[in-house]
Every structure is written in C-alpha cells, then in structure tokens.
C-alpha cells in the first residue's frame, strides 16, 4: 500500500467508475490515483462473519473486516466512516479504519471532522444536484435515489432524510424519477 496516495472521500456511485492502472498498483478516478477510499454511510447488513454492507445513499458497498474490526460489535443502522483499500476484483477489500459516528450529537462536529452527515448527503447534496441540473438545462433525465418507506413523519432519521431529499428534488425538478 502506497500511503503517499491520499484516501479519497468518495460515494459508491463514484467508486464504480474507478479503473485500474496497469503500471501502478492503484486505481484512477478522474485522473487521480488512489489505493484507499473513505466512505460514510449506514450499516444495512452484517453476516456476523466480518462481511458488512454499507449504504451511503448512492449505492451499497461490501466491507470485509479483519483483525480487531471483526471483534467489535457492529449494529445495523450505525452511521460509520470507513477508510480502507479499494480493490476492483472479487475477494476481500480490507478495511483500515472504521469509526461509529452514530453518537455524534450535531452537524457542527461533522463539519469539524470534515465529514458528510447523512442528511447532507441525502437531502442537501440531492437538492444542490437538482438545482444545478435545472439551471444548466438540457438534462434529459434526473434520477433521485431514495428508498421504500421514505416519509417525513417516519421515526427513522434515515427515512426522514430520504423523504426530505425527495421533496427538495421535486421542488427543483418537476419531471424526475424517484
């Protein structure tokens, strides 16, 4: 692992566009070389055998835990930050660091840590993308990724954020697929 290459803060939708480089043991995305990715999201699956699924609002990422991370208790619904190697191949993608962010009390701490909050990803960014798309014009189709059961009155923070994102996008783009 070449630690002189930065761990890029990415969304799942961006990771799928990463491509392997031939001469270096790295990946490239938009001309930037990297070996490690930094993602944030909600744990949506845990098989109890060190394999977790993380939903960052744009897609689901499989995490393969090893060492001390397997010994920790990871609950479904936890909001976590993960830094680890990203490999475009079947098999294990090692997690280098994983932190439970569920207990962060407010947005201020998230901004101090330079993290995206779940609400920022699923509401604020969705609204900004829709606004920019509308202003640029010529957008043939805008698709907002949400989830079943999204509702402003839901007791779930995740479902409330998804619903707020849907409403914000609909305000900006009247013809949108959600």
UniProtKB/TrEMBL annotation:
This is Uncharacterized protein. It comes from the Eukaryota. PANTHER family: RECQ-MEDIATED GENOME INSTABILITY PROTEIN 2, RECQ-MEDIATED GENOME INSTABILITY PROTEIN 2 RMI2. It comes from Populus tomentosa. GO terms for cellular component: cytosol; nuclear speck. One of its GO terms (biological process) is maintenance of rDNA.
């Amino acid at each position: 692992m070449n630690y002189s290459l930065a761990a890029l803060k990415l969304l799942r939708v961006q990771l799928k566009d990463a491509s392997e480089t031939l001469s270096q043991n790295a990946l490239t995305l938009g001309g930037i070389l990297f070996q490690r990715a930094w993602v944030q999201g909600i744990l949506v699956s845990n098989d109890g055998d060190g394999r977790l699924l993380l939903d960052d609002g744009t897609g689901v990422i499989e995490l393969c835990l090893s060492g001390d991370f397997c010994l920790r208790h990871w609950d479904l619904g936890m909001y976590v930050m993960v830094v680890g190697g990203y490999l475009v191949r079947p098999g294990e993608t090692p997690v280098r660091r994983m932190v439970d962010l569920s207990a962060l009390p407010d947005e201020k701490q998230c901004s101090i840590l330079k993290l995206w909050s779940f609400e920022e990803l699923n509401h604020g960014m969705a609204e900004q993308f829709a606004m920019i798309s509308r202003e640029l014009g010529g957008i043939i189709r805008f698709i907002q990724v949400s989830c079943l059961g999204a509702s402003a009155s839901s007791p779930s923070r995740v479902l409330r954020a998804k619903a707020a994102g849907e409403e914000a996008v609909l305000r900006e783009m009247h013809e949108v697929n959600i």
